[in-house]
Amino acid sequence: MHRIGIDLGGTKTELIVTGENPLDVIEKKRVETERSGYQALLKQLEDLVDSVGNLALENPAVGLGAPGFVDPKTGAVGSSNLRPLSFKPFQDDLQKRLGMPVRVVNDANCFALSEALHGAGKGYGMVLGIILGTGMGGGLVLDGKLWSGSQGIAGEWGHATVNSEGPACYCGRRGCQELYLSGTGIQRMYRERTGSDLGVQQIFEASQEGNDADAVQVMEIFLETFGQALGNLVMSLDPDVIVIGGGVSNLPILYKEGLQRVSAQVFQGRQNIRIVQNQLGDSSGVYGAAAAAGTTV
Ligand SMILES: [Zn+2]
């Protein structure tokens, strides 16, 4: 079987063609995502898949990672930052157009799947993938299979509340974890205190130098929330490994102080918790999409 993996992003769409192993890339393409409408987007994806038709693919199947939550029964994509998709029967429609099996998966689940099968989570039974980037999302893989939950919302822990009196979130709730743990959240906390816009790395470095009290406070809130959020996940699921992705995953404190804060939140301060950085970087989405090709819910 050949796998076609598509990472459908808000601005860019990437396609890879692989053999049975999703890391064995035969062909790669990248286009600007068609955002003008649903039919136009379907047409673009059809053209993109047609453009690799010359490769004489054997029993090709498509896996597609999409932004937003995916209904496990219908393949419809909701709450997406890609408006044309909103609640359309995307998986069915794409399958009809392409005439081959299509599996649509949440993009954060693609990250978790690729890291579990081929990256930092390889060889572990239960892998939690957590993306701390513009937002916070993730996924859960159990024995090499995605666990997307009965409603398709497993891994949406970015929108679990940690502070019911916290700031309003776009999801309609207040004080979601994402508001403190995402890169955007770290930058917001710093901006609210100082009026200046710094990048996450700069805020982190300022906190380490010690003479910027606001940066120190922001990183302290970040670490404490990280401990609470991941501690709660460990107490609920007791995973074999937690793999962190997204821009914030580059902060070295996650794997030292961050890990200690998590341990402190877990029953009896257990020390044998594994929190590691991802290995596949920005490519994890499209590899995960390819890995999802040919699978069923
Ligand atoms: Zn939220």
Key features?
297 residues, alpha/beta, Nucleotidyltransferase, domain 5, 2 domains, five-stranded mixed β-sheet, 12 strands, globular, binds zinc ion
Order of helices and strands: EEEHEEEHEHEEEHHHHEHEH
Ligand set: zinc ion
**What is the CATH C level class of the largest domain, in words?**
Alpha Beta
Strands in their spatial order, largest beta sheet: 3-2-1-4-7
Spans of at least 5 consecutive residues with low confidence: none
What is the count of helical runs?
A: 9
Cα(first) to Cα(last) distance is: 19 Å
Please state the average pLDDT score: 93
Largest sheet geometry = 5 strands, mixed
**CATH architecture descriptor of the largest domain:** 2-Layer Sandwich
CATH superfamily of the largest domain: ATPase, nucleotide binding domain
Which outline best applies?
A: globular
SSE class:
alpha/beta
| Oligomeric status | single chain
Might you state the CATH topology name of the largest domain? Nucleotidyltransferase, domain 5
- Portion in strands: 15-25%
The tally of strands reads 12
